Amino acid sequence: MISQNDIAVIIGSASQELGQKICQNLGIDPCKSEVIVFSEGNTFVRVLESVRGRDCYVVQAVSYPVDRNFMELLFWIDALKLASANQVTAVIPFFSYAKGDKKDEPRVSIRARVCMDALEIAGADRILTMDLHSPQIQGFFRKPVDHLNARGVLASYFQNVDLKDWVVASADVGYGKNAFKFGQELGVPVVIGNKIRKDHSENAQVWNIVGEVAGKNVLIVDDIIFTGGSLISMAQAAREQGAKDIYAAVTHGVLTPGAQAKLDKSLIKEIIVTDTVEYRFETPGPKIKTASVAPLFAEAIRHIHTYESVSELFPN
Ligand code: R5P
């Protein structure tokens, strides 16, 4: 049983709805707090109740506007530490900078490491996050990271579907391992595309698919939708090779400007995303369905607080 006296959940600007749902699932009220963004763009945060001796959880996605939301997260952590919180966990449902995980071109920053360093210096004792684009960046943070995955939540959307003629698909080898786990979860075979990006223009193209899609319904799985290009190109390649109905299940539905219109016109019938990202550049169309990860985050917080296993909460 979680008591309001022991823990405090601070809901950051980027995760207002998810934070509220997490609190409802935990059966507690959110910690009272305020954020002011001054006219020059300077962010001010204040915790409006005592957190002395309490374990604090700051729920804040590092999503658009990415840098402002990241700075706000750092300020929350600092404010809580200075207010004598016992422990501070950064609950980051979506972490945009997970893509900056290596120096793969000359003179670039390893942005994920810089962010992890900043979180540590601000005073974060732990990170609770979900489906990082590069899971290995957990190693940039020298304290515990609990890394959840949304596979169970997304797969449960298909629990009443007869999956006899289905395949799970990944647009590229990078997500192949996750696709195989997804396939195992649903009990269907997996196919992989050979997605290529020539530069930073965000144009993705799938030229070919390894595996049989002719006559099959295809469920494309991925970690993020930005422009929608990866899903759309994979769907086109699948249809050219004889696929029937095409669906997608993706953890983080970022959907940058223009993505919605392209997905509306695409061959994909339905796209399941989770509620890790709240900011909407455009109103989601009827093809987008949302499954909530709030119960999973709430359970993870409960398990962290009671020193129980977190990995037992979801398929690994
Ligand atoms: C790529 O490596 C990621 O897993 C996603 O496939 C990609 O970032 C999605 O971007 P977009 O929607 O712009 O194709």
Description:
The chain is 28% helix and 26% strand. The protein is an alpha/beta fold and 316 residues long. Helix 1 (16-26) crosses helix 8 (294-305) and helix 2 (66-82) runs parallel beside helix 3. The chain starts with 6 loop residues before the first strand and ends in an 11-residue tail after the last helix. The structure holds ribose-5-phosphate. The site of ribose-5-phosphate (R5P) has 14 residues, from strand 11 and helix 6.
The 3D shape can be described as globular
List ligands, each type once.
ribose-5-phosphate
Distance from first to last alpha carbon? 26 Å
Provide the β-strand percentage band: 25-35%
Layout of helices and strands:
Blueprint: E1 7-11, H1 16-26, E2 33-37, E3 43-47, E4 55-59, H2 66-82, E5 87-92, H3 111-122, E6 126-130, E7 145-148, H4 151-156, E8 166-170, H5 176-186, E9 190-196, E10 205-210, E11 217-225, H6 229-240, E12 246-253, H7 259-265, E13 268-274, E14 288-291, H8 294-305
Parallel strand pairs: 1-4, 4-5, 5-6, 6-7, 8-9, 8-11, 11-12, 12-13, 13-14
Antiparallel strand pairs: 2-3, 9-10
